[in-house]
Amino acid sequence: MYSASGDYRNAAILILIGMMLDSMDGRIARMLHVESELGKELDSLADIVTFGVAPAMMAYYAYFSYFGIVGMAIAALFPLFGAYRLARFNINAVKSSLKYFTGVPITAGGGLLTLLTFFHGKMPGVIFVIAFFALCILMVSTIKIPSLKEVPLPKYGIIITLFLGYAIYMVFRKEHHRFPYFIYVAMPLYVAFIGYQLVRFKKKKQ
Asked: Which sequence ranges are marked TM in the entry (predicted)?
């Protein structure tokens, strides 16, 4: 709905928050011993909506709406390719290695498309269209992408991230125009935390 009203900034921020939460949901489920086949299916559906449909809606309203039904068809390619990528991952999840992904994950693809759309008006449309189709192809490709699944995520990290998410929600609920600015604090802290865990994991492995 933010995309439909032309508010790409808030739309992008909400998708990026979705990326933060997506990086933890599986680990939280395993930590609490509540993982299930139902949870896995719901996770895939949530991924298609958050990182497939939502970024495609942003792309449509920002760039492809000018082309009518052709623009709709082009924008629809992204969630379709993303759904195929997820389906392929789900049936090969047992066989796949923890060290790499086959093809760009829909989370990364949707995140990159979101960031590109965020700069709507500051980037030539041709570059965006090329990047759009490239991401679609990369998702269904067989390129090996390094995975960070083996990096541990301690309990206090989950608490910190949930607190940041709650704080963002409170700011957003009370004052709409202040919402985008708070993420400039939350995201660097989250990125710094992930970087710290990578260094810590590397030292531990050595």
From this structure: 69-86, 98-119, 125-143, 155-172, 178-199
Which run of H or of E encompasses 60? Answer: none
Predicted structure pTM score:
0.69
Nearest alpha carbon to residue 80 among 132, 128, 127, 42: 132
Task: Give residue for tokens 């949870």.
Answer: 39
- 195 to each of 113, 138, 168, 185, 187, how far by Cα in Å? 23, 25, 22, 16, 12
| DSSP 8-state assignment for residue 123 | S
14-63 pLDDT tens trace: 888 888 788 777 777 777 777 888 888 888 899 999 999 999 999 999 89
What is the percent of the chain with per-residue pLDDT over 90, rounded to a whole number?
A: 22
CA pair distance 171, 156, nearest whole angstrom: 23
Report d(CA 61, CA 78) in Å as an integer. Answer: 14
Q: Number of H helices and number of E strands within the chain?
A: 8, 2
How many C-beta atoms lie closer than 10 Å to residue 144's C-beta? 12
Give every CB contact of residue 102 below 8 A, 6+ residues apart in sequence: 88, 89, 92, 96, 142, 143, 144, 145
Q: Say how far apart CA 136 and CA 92 lie, in whole Å.
A: 20
Half-sphere exposure of 15 (CA within 13 A, CB side): 34
Length of the chain counted residue by residue: 206
